[in-house]
## 1
Amino acid sequence: MNSPKGKIEPLDQIPSGIPGLDTILRGGFLRAGITIIQGVPGAGKTILGNQLCYNHVANGGKAIYVTLLAESHARMMLHMSQLSFFNADLVPERLYLISAFRVLEESGLKGLQDLLRREIQKHGATVVVLDGLVAAEESATSAREFKKFIHELQTQASLTDCTIFLLTGAGSRPVAPEHTMVDGILELKSENVGRRTERVLVAHKMRGVDVLRGHHAMRITAGGMEVFPRIEAVIGDPDTPPAHVTRALSSGLPVLDRITGGGFPQGSTTLLVGAVGVGKTTLGLQFLSQCTADAPGVMLSFYDGPAALLTKAGNLGLNFADAVAQHAVEIIWQPITEGQLDEICDRFLRIVRLKKAKRVFIDGIGGLSRIAGDQDRLARVLAALNIEFQLRGVTAIYTAESDLSAAIHGKPFDGLSLQGVSSVAHNIVLMRYVELRSELHRMISVLKVRSARIDSGLHLYTMGPKGIEIEDDTAGAARILHALESSGSSARVLDA
Amino acid sequence: MASVLVVDDEFGITEVLDALLTDAGHHVRRAINGRQALELVHEQRPDLILLDMMMPIMDGPTTLKAIRSDPQSASTPVILMSSLPPDKVVKMVDQAFESILTKPFRAKDAIEAINTALTGSA
């Protein structure tokens, strides 16, 4: 709406107080508007309705929760009392619970409308939740009567400066008439990801607001409902593009720093690709061991838990444990058995921001991939994370597991599944096994580094009590590859 | 047999209490808010009133005040019903009542409270 001076006035919104939801709604619900919250039984409508009320009254507002043919108040309060937002002290002085079913039965929609008007005025309510809209719809003698009810409710909301939420089951019609009349529509759904079921929230409509579109992950915990906006929608489209930084960060391995052209450029993302056990995690731990209290780091581990990582780092002589003890490094362990991609990214990014981390290590992309389910989406999420890291000057390392292959002369990247993830990495480092006679050797090579002159030669390395030690020149690697060629076993695949 | 007035806006509560008390041989009338309840009290004074605290139009505390201020019904035993903790209910009312039934309650607890109230008022 334009003011007399021609300035665009911001919309008057009331925050939901629900983490993530206000981000999706760009601030909250339209004040004095009507929002439909729909979903199948068990989707979380009643929890959301209650959480909206309790959050609103905790901030000084007044609310009425009106039920039609819904859960009894006693059972509802019993269930809500298990959730942390519940506060019995606020009932009934600030939050009033009434049932309007009998009024609806006896006096129809007109009676319900009158009851709502009187109760809003009597209690000075600024929020009303009507739970069980379907009962009102069923009692309407015609579609026109129901539309009139919604229309009058809208006028009432506006006149009394009361924000109204209508809770209803998932509609059988894709676009119900009431959907065109209300200010906002939220839908709570369940989606199958493999054999798991994930809760999602979709904001279909909020008048005057460019809501974050799409399916957003949602959880119901002891704290109530929490929503995790699609991470790529939140961080993937910054107002200003990331600045180009030329400063490089040490990997913690002097030879690797040299062959990468001085270290990993600040704000860049490095993909460490290699087979299981080749030393990707070790290299990442060495990278994080450089963290200090002023330049901290965060590790997101999908495989090894904190204790295992500390033991591993200890055996390799890394001062990783000191960095963790001094809070220079924080480990987030996320088993791949459960979890939602957006929730994990949200938790990870929150800690990265809170700590003002300068280094992050994700071990590895395979864990994210398993949780994401959708590979196309994973690439978009990784691209969004890269943008966030670039903006914050965070240097990142991701690990990606490759097939257990030997190097093949003339085809050095055979067996390395780089497709889909290589595009999101600024730098790529390959770590591989080479089998010669009865011995396994490890070699490292740099495929690319953003804006740097690299040494792309293969370098032998060992893993011992001082961590990864890379040979300064390529002579050792050349010797082994030459011997391999001479032996005629150049394409030895170890596990196939 | 006693005459019992059940006052509650929740459909399920009045339905179930009506059936329960009718089975026990009582005569039951129902109201969905305090105003309706007062009209029924004026029509015929009940032996016992089961009164909900949170209702539209007229709430429980206001209704109880009106019951007690009318000489005709001032001594009628009243059992309060609420989902709120009993100490909270006590703070909400400043009139005499028999007992509090905390929702959700079991049938035997309701019958016991009703019998106690009716015996005491007999």
Note: The interface with chain B takes residues 67, 69, 72-78, 88-89, 91-92, 96-103, 105-106, 115, 118-119 of chain A (CB under 8 Å).
## 2
Amino acid sequence: MASHGTRKPTFTEGMLMQRRTFLKLLGAATGLGVGHFSPLGQALAEEANAGHFFVCIHASGGWDVTLWADPRNEKLGLVSPASTENTDTGVIRRWVDAPLDGDTRTFALVKPAGSNIVFGPGIGELGDMASRLTVVNGLAMNTVSHPDGTAFSATGRHLVGGRVPGSSIDTLFANEFGLTQTFPLVSVQFPSSYVGDNLDRRAVPLTIGSVGTLSRTLTRSTLYDSDAERDKVTALLGKQARELAAESAYPDVMQGMALQYDALRAMLGGKLQDVFSVGGLQKAQPQFNYKARFASGTAVNMAFAIEAMKRNVVRCVSFAQGGFDTHNANYKTQALVQQDLFDAVAQFVRTLDETPHPTLRGKKLADTTHILVMSDFCRTPQINTGGGRDHYPNNSALVISPRFKGNFVFGKSDKEQLLPAHAKRFADGDRAIAPPDLLATMLSAVSVNPRKYLRDGEVVPELLKV
Amino acid sequence: MRALAATTFVYTALVACGPPSVVHPESAPALSAASRVAMDTAPKEDLRLVPPEAYMRSYLQWFGALAPADVQKRAKGADGNQLFDSWDDYLSAMGFPDYRNDLPRAQQTNAIMVATFERLAIALCDRAVEHDLKSLPVTPMAERAVFAFENQEPMTEAAFAPRFDVLHRTFLGYPATLAPGPVSRSHIYYGLFSEVVAARQKSKAKARFTPTEAAWAAVCYGLARHPETHLY
């Protein structure tokens, strides 16, 4: 648990205060005879959720859950655990040898002090923050295709043909809470999608290949044209777009473009380009490990997220880290890829703990930031002939949120085949938890009615703090 | 009674065995109009984003039909003025798909895409002013990339209109006089032109362009970034 100093509330106190305010507001709404998702309840909830931030991270390629969230260190059924034969163990700090088969060693399970969660060694430094973590295991993916698994994890819908039929969770957060921000949603190689009629055009993900693109895209030379001239042109184009929208039978797209011209004026007026250059971010947030073998880009993205949240110019930041698709001998680095990612997440959470909230006095960013870490699917329990693991229709996910129960694991996979097992009785019967359920729960945690956006999925109250 | 039955039988037999009745075709009378409505020519689909490949191909064409690497080199220039970085910096923001990461092409514009279009359009127009209007000896009309007309100072609205039409046809593909909107588009852009000229004449800041050159650049990137350039 992070300390916030002597005179300020601790993280837990902050959470309780915030939750108290939130419950008070919801209680008032209920007392007035309005439902949790009624317009009045919604308005009160919006107030309670003001100033919240969202960070979505995609472990791109499909991670091996047996090395972190759903650890396996015994040969049982199909399961061949990671071992000294197939893993570079020297660089894995939490790897402690345990007997497996003759000279071959596997890892000892990792259970940090005070933790209810048992991890694999890939969890890295994040294992020390178990009290903050909500782990969801046995997510039923029903796919082993990268694009489909990615879309399912991010939107709760499988692909229809090659098309993503739903909006991704980051877009939904941006639509609900980010429309007035300069950057409602910055998406760095995250599988963000914007689909549907009930969304505002300002929530269209700002998709970029790297954070550096943001800075370069906003850089303007002043030798040829002046800021005032460019601003005049942008204002004129916004007006043109509005006039064209007024004459159009389908004005949405034109109106959206008018809003985007306005947003551009705000971005350029904010002089953010120097702050968001890679060099500028590294200087401003030196605590991240920019030399991590697999997470150097992740470190820059996290530094960007912190700086953008500090300035209150963003609502949601989503990004991806690659390196998890280890079919062959590259499986040797799977544990390291995980360790790099989770070390970065741990540093991110520590930074959130220390960074004051830009608008809520006495709060830290950690008090209002919700983090989701997910992947395409998991990898096979058996090692293939190439020494790696292939795609498997099970998955795990990680949530770090002030509204979710910490130190908590929900869902499970079966012991011998690593397939999703029944987690509880849902409205449609006993079944495993699936991505739509997790996404619905995340929306519900910030008082958004999941049915407004999601076709499937049931809120899992067990995951939420009471 | 018997006579009646016999008569009925004979009559029935005659009718049943007689020649078939013939209906002669004739034209139906014209229906009278109940009301008149105009034909609905409104598009039944919302505007779509021009695919990034099509935009980039157009951009290369506006730049003088050069190869992408040549455009990048010419747009960057050798003066280090940050008019352009590299195509790699813009591809994701322009909406290109990323098959390495299974990311589909962008279907909608967004604010960063609009910022990228601005950056690209400014690079195009500033370099075009240098090439077409500023270079010495004067670039022959046939070799001009964008400004295929002679500049004139001072620029009256009457003189502006045909020149603006050249740019309008280049970037938007149709005559300026047909542009929708309550006010003539040429008049709107002449307003922009005049404001830039007036501001430059007042300003003491060091600049590469004369007031009219800067104004033409502004009009140029006001069209190269126009919503109609990016949506169809």
Note: Residues 312 and 355 of chain A are 12 Å apart (CA to CA).
